[in-house]
Amino acid sequence: MKPRSIxxxxxxxxxxxxxxxxxxxxxxxxxxxxxxxxNDPPHTLQTIIHYIARAYEIYQKAQQxxxxxxxxxxxxxxxxxxxxxxxxEVASLLFVLDSxxxxxxxxxxxxxxxxxxxxxxxxxxxxxxxxxxxxxxxxERTLETMRRGLNSVNRASRLITDQYTLGDIKQTMTQxxxxxxxxxxxxxxxxxxxxxxxxxxxxxxxxxxxxxxYYGYRLNEEAQAAATHLDMLERTATAARARHSPGFTFRPSxxxx
Length: 257
Description:
Blueprint: H1 9-25, H2 41-78, H3 91-101, H4 114-121, H5 131-156, H6 160-173, H7 179-243
Helix pairs in contact: 1-2, 3-5, 5-7
């Protein structure tokens, strides 16, 4: 295999032309008066080759500098940051949602004393003493909880802003060029997904809240109705026994209480 020359073809061609002209021409400067003409083609050729080699050395250094500049430009592009990351703010939205469901008489999960308020509203197996006021309060608090939960879902379901944000992220994906931009865009997408999970958890909390209050109302209604009915029977039996027969209680044997 023939070894490949390290001298560019243009330089080799220049050397050949110089050699031809050097052999044909003779000295580069005219001799002085009375001075004999000295024709030294090898020396002339050696001088020309020296300058060609020097020019090629300068050319190689210029190429090295150009490659270094291109490498620095690539590094700068790789470290370039996103001009406008597509961040959004959900902390304020979560605060608004918690405030919506916790207003009025709603039995909201965000209340600090939710356990005490739930128990006082739905006491369970307790006979009613003022059926009208107690039943009204339970219905009002249950409906208020449902209404506030619905308002919270309504506020959280306004997705038009999120759609614009996703559109901007998609557009940015087609414009990134450097590694840093790609990493920042991945971080933006990951943060957006994490925020969606937070909003989903909040929606599940609202749903659980509504279900707990609704079923609490239904079970409490059954429990208080049974307790009130049994209390009425026992008080009636006690009054009848005191007046008529000490052994008769008016309590049906079919009741499981």
